[in-house]
Design goal:
eight-stranded mixed sheet; 24% helix; 7 helices; alpha+beta; 357 residues; phage-related protein like fold
């Protein structure tokens, strides 16, 4: 009987918790009952994990010109730039020359909100050997980076400044032809439209002619691993660890060629559809750029945010699940100077097997 009475007392205690407009209170004492919300220390810890994992996978964003958007200032940002002047002409004695017009042009970008989450059951959270919330946080960081990378990648693809690599005879390295459209790019056994040292040299020359300012004295090119495979066989390739100042490497940097440093990125465009080559297989877009070629908006209050709701907050009447997610606001990317961004189109030895991304 004592055991039965004790068990009944346990159920009786449950009735002392009452929901009110200010939270939950003990019906007998009036004291507020704890909600088991996520502590500030743990939120900071999870936020840090998310950001660190996201940054480790972000390659394009590290080169963007960032523009802060203060709170309560709408959703659009304008980047302004001064127009350039022509060179001076020889003056005629006593004749006032025609003056040049001075003005500026602008580019605008607008932000949108992105986010996702995952639900973790109470049984998984309680009985799994590993920290499920931490594991989900790490994977959410990778997801956030992939989302941002895809938005930038797709935004840069529409830039019309395009360079096509030569179709090269793989036996002797001679140039067979130079394509002007994707369907002219070769991906056959003996001929391949590949990124070669000569192609890089030509692309860098275009940048120089357009007077594109460098980043720390170099241009940068983001390339897919399949394209890097063909490029690494070059005897002129300089491995990243042989740099004079290796501590200055950017995230993902792998080497240098002809004054251009390369960033390897698995999210670099693998294209099909309207971009398939002559053989009907994948082509690749490598982005070569200089300083401030594109911009990203950093909205105040809209930066990448980790959101963890424990099961006592969101898990329903029986506290059956927690949620882990993130959200952020971004414009994706805005091309600020089209001439500072060159899309290099090529195939690779993996064109036949790679899936578009």
């Amino acid at each position: 009987m004592d055991m039965i009475f004790d068990n009944l007392q346990l159920f009786a205690e449950a009735g002392t918790v009452v929901n009110t407009t200010g939270g939950t209170v003990n019906a007998l004492t009036g004291e507020a009952t704890p909600t088991n919300a996520l502590s500030g220390e743990m939120k900071t810890f999870y936020d840090t994990e998310l950001l660190e994992n996201a940054r480790a996978e972000m390659f394009y964003a590290q080169f963007a010109k960032r523009q802060v958007l203060p709170e309560n200032h709408g959703t659009t940002v304008e980047w302004r730039k001064w127009n350039t002047f022509d060179k001076a002409k020889k003056l005629e004695e006593g004749v006032i020359p025609t003056g040049q017009k001075f003005g500026m042009s602008s580019k605008t970008g607008s932000i949108n909100q992105y986010g996702t989450y995952a639900t973790i059951s109470d049984k998984l959270e309680l009985h799994a050997y590993d920290d499920t919330i931490l594991g989900a946080t790490e994977e959410m960081g990778a997801s956030a980076a992939e989302t941002q990378e895809a938005l930038i990648r797709d935004g840069l693809l529409v830039n019309t400044n395009v360079f096509y690599c030569d179709n090269v005879n793989l036996a002797d390295g001679s140039v067979v032809s130079t394509p002007t459209a994707p369907n002219e790019m070769e991906a056959a056994d003996g001929v391949l439209c590949k990124l070669t040292p000569d192609a890089i040299n030509k692309a860098v020359t275009i940048m120089k002619k357009n007077r594109v300012p460098r980043i720390g004295g170099k241009y940068y090119c983001v390339v897919h691993p399949s394209v890097v495979y063909d490029l690494r066989s070059c005897k002129d390739w300089v491995e990243a660890h042989k740099y004079a100042a290796p501590q200055e490497l950017f995230n993902g940097e792998i080497g240098e060629l002809h004054g251009c440093r390369f960033i390897e990125n698995v999210f670099a465009p693998v294209l099909k559809g309207d971009y398939v080559n002559k053989a009907g297989t994948a082509t690749y877009a490598s982005y070569l750029f200089g300083k401030d070629a594109f911009g990203i908006i950093d909205p105040a209050g809209g930066a990448l945010e980790m959101i963890v709701k424990d099961r006592s907050q969101i898990g329903g009447p029986l506290n059956q699940f927690s949620t882990v997610g993130y959200k952020f606001e971004t414009n994706g990317v805005t091309v600020l100077y089209p001439e500072r961004l060159l899309r290099i189109m090529s195939c690779s030895s993996y064109s036949g097997s790679d899936q578009e991304n």
